[in-house]
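ok so i was messing around last nite and threw this chain in just to see what happens. nothing serious, just curious
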Amino acid sequence: MARAHQTQRGAIAVEFAIVLLPMLILCFGITELGRALYLYNGLVKASRGAARHLSQQNLASPPAGFTADGLRLNARSLALCGAFDCADRPPLVPNLTLAMISVCDPVLCPTTHANISTGQGTTSLVTVTIGAGDNRYPFTSVVPWVVPSINYSPVGITMAASTN
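result:
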């Protein structure tokens, strides 16, 4: 009986070592995918806030002291750092740049965003997109051997524009 007990010595350590690697990979994978979703959610919220601000502006006749280009820059800055002036503020989402944020409104994109028929009249639209064209937002994985680094598809929000 004592001999059988000695032959089993270390078996638990070997089994633990065999199970540990897949468990670590699973743990790192879940953590990285959670981080990827967290960053994506940040991009969605940033573009939504900028579109909401821009939808409340009348770009065809901006208020006194403002220009349409200035209002567009304000919306892009809101998406970037959450404020109109990003001089001393970090981006809301790491590695986000102003070049990754684009705006389309009834003045810039009249064929797709001006006088859209709704069935109950017409409206105009504003769109804020993060990552359009070659300026995709990159997700850099901390553990690329588990979850590879990727570039997100464009994140765009479209809202009805103000006509006041």
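not much to say yet. The chain has four helices and seven strands.
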